[in-house]
């Protein structure tokens, strides 16, 4: 569900942040490209379409601030790039977002929106007293398209 500009303004104010065009544009770009897992450079390229005078350093500062305020999440996929996405729950503590499926063949990244670890987290807390506030889970394998392509290639080689 897309988030309105008014909701972004409300979110920024609730976090005690000044409402600026840069902050709104970064949030809007991330919301519009929810499954893109964007780098700061990706965000910059899209923001500068509407705000050409913006600099890359401003994007980095804005993303860092929004990250600290728990309005966006940082994703490290071990590919040398830090990526960002708007949180599913927009900063609500104790809420999990989603997991990531990463294709080892083509590098495609797919979001998996089902948190299956709630029972495990409850067990961890019960047995150890450790209260899990969040987790980050990545699955590595082969996507449907690459698997299909590989299967076709195997059959044509015969």
TrEMBL record:
<comment type="similarity">
    <text>Belongs to the Fur family.</text>
</comment>
<dbReference type="Pfam" id="PF01475">
    <property type="entry name" value="FUR"/>
</dbReference>
<dbReference type="InterPro" id="IPR036388">
    <property type="entry name" value="WH-like_DNA-bd_sf"/>
</dbReference>
<dbReference type="GO" id="GO:1900376">
    <property type="term" value="P:regulation of secondary metabolite biosynthetic process"/>
</dbReference>
<dbReference type="InterPro" id="IPR002481">
    <property type="entry name" value="FUR"/>
</dbReference>
<feature type="binding site">
    <location>
        <position position="106"/>
    </location>
    <ligand>
        <name>Zn(2+)</name>
    </ligand>
</feature>
<feature type="binding site">
    <location>
        <position position="103"/>
    </location>
    <ligand>
        <name>Zn(2+)</name>
    </ligand>
</feature>
<keyword id="KW-0804">Transcription</keyword>
<dbReference type="InterPro" id="IPR043135">
    <property type="entry name" value="Fur_C"/>
</dbReference>
<protein>
    <submittedName>
        <fullName>Transcriptional repressor</fullName>
    </submittedName>
</protein>
<keyword id="KW-0805">Transcription regulation</keyword>
<dbReference type="GO" id="GO:0003700">
    <property type="term" value="F:DNA-binding transcription factor activity"/>
</dbReference>
<dbReference type="InterPro" id="IPR036390">
    <property type="entry name" value="WH_DNA-bd_sf"/>
</dbReference>
<feature type="binding site">
    <location>
        <position position="118"/>
    </location>
    <ligand>
        <name>Fe cation</name>
    </ligand>
</feature>
<keyword id="KW-0479">Metal-binding</keyword>
<feature type="binding site">
    <location>
        <position position="146"/>
    </location>
    <ligand>
        <name>Zn(2+)</name>
    </ligand>
</feature>
<keyword id="KW-0678">Repressor</keyword>
<feature type="binding site">
    <location>
        <position position="143"/>
    </location>
    <ligand>
        <name>Zn(2+)</name>
    </ligand>
</feature>
<dbReference type="GO" id="GO:0045892">
    <property type="term" value="P:negative regulation of DNA-templated transcription"/>
</dbReference>
<dbReference type="GO" id="GO:0008270">
    <property type="term" value="F:zinc ion binding"/>
</dbReference>
<keyword id="KW-0862">Zinc</keyword>
<keyword id="KW-0408">Iron</keyword>
<feature type="binding site">
    <location>
        <position position="135"/>
    </location>
    <ligand>
        <name>Fe cation</name>
    </ligand>
</feature>
<dbReference type="GO" id="GO:0000976">
    <property type="term" value="F:transcription cis-regulatory region binding"/>
</dbReference>
<keyword id="KW-0238">DNA-binding</keyword>
């Amino acid at each position: 569900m897309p988030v309105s500009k008014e909701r972004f303004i409300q979110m920024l104010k609730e976090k005690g942040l000044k409402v600026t065009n840069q902050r709104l544009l970064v949030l809007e770009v991330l919301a519009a490209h929810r499954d893109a897992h964007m780098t700061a450079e990706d965000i910059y390229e899209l923001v500068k379409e509407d705000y050409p005078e913006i600099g890359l350093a401003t994007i980095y500062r804005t993303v860092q601030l929004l990250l600290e305020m728990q309005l966006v999440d940082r994703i490290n996929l071990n590919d040398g790039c830090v990526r960002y996405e708007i949180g599913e729950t927009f900063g609500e503590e104790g809420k999990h977002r989603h997991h990531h499926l990463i294709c080892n063949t083509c590098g495609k990244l797919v979001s998996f929106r089902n948190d299956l670890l709630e029972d495990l987290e409850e067990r961890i807390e019960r047995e150890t007293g450790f209260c899990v506030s969040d987790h980050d889970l990545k699955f590595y394998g082969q996507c449907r398209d690459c698997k299909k392509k590989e299967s076709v290639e195997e059959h044509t080689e015969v």
